[in-house]
Specification:
The structure is a single chain. The radius of gyration is 15 Å and the shape is globular. The protein has 7 helices and 7 strands, in the order αβαβαββαβααβαβ. The chain is of the alpha/beta class.
């Protein structure tokens, strides 16, 4: 539904793993008739089906080496952070990629549920702590509660994680 609302030309996904999410997003973009996925990870474990999809480009040297200039030719950009969920890593990722998110689009931070389940300490503070720190110095982003509460109040794996660029 977010893709239908935003209609991105580019989705940057940090955290490929086997590529299931990238494949799902690329298929949705195929239905929309536009868009590309840049999926980033630290190693190449993606299935062949993912590697061969014409809308997916894989980057396997980690988010730190991803060149943001690769996004400059796209008008509407959405970013999904789904890597280690460690506080410091999450904060660094969203700080790096926030500038390329288009106004009206989203920076989605996955798996803040770790904090809600009490596992935040195991992740150095986790995604929610990183989100709150990020928002302190990024007033052009706001938590979009409509997606967090879409299926009921606080019914999401991504609490506070739907950051809309306003």
């Amino acid at each position: 539904m977010i893709l239908n609302e935003v209609k991105p030309d580019l989705i940057i996904e940090i955290g490929t793993n086997k590529g299931g999410s990238a494949l799902y997003l690329a298929d949705l973009m195929e239905i929309m008739g536009k868009g590309q996925i840049h999926s980033i990870d630290i190693q190449d474990e993606a299935f062949d089906l993912v590697r061969k999809h014409p809308r997916i480009k894989l980057f396997t040297e980690g988010w730190e080496k991803y060149d943001l200039d690769l996004a400059k030719d796209f008008e509407i950009i959405l970013v999904i952070e789904d890597s280690s969920h460690e506080y410091e890593n999450t904060l660094e990722v969203i700080q790096k990629f926030a500038p390329v998110v288009s106004r009206g689009s989203y920076l989605i931070v996955e798996d803040g549920i770790l904090n809600i389940l009490g596992w935040g300490k195991s992740f150095g503070g986790g995604p929610i702590m990183a989100i709150h720190k990020f928002l302190e110095s990024n007033p052009d982003f706001k938590v979009e509660k409509k997606w967090e509460n879409f299926f009921g109040k606080d019914t999401t794996f991504n609490p506070h994680g739907f950051l809309k660029k306003v």
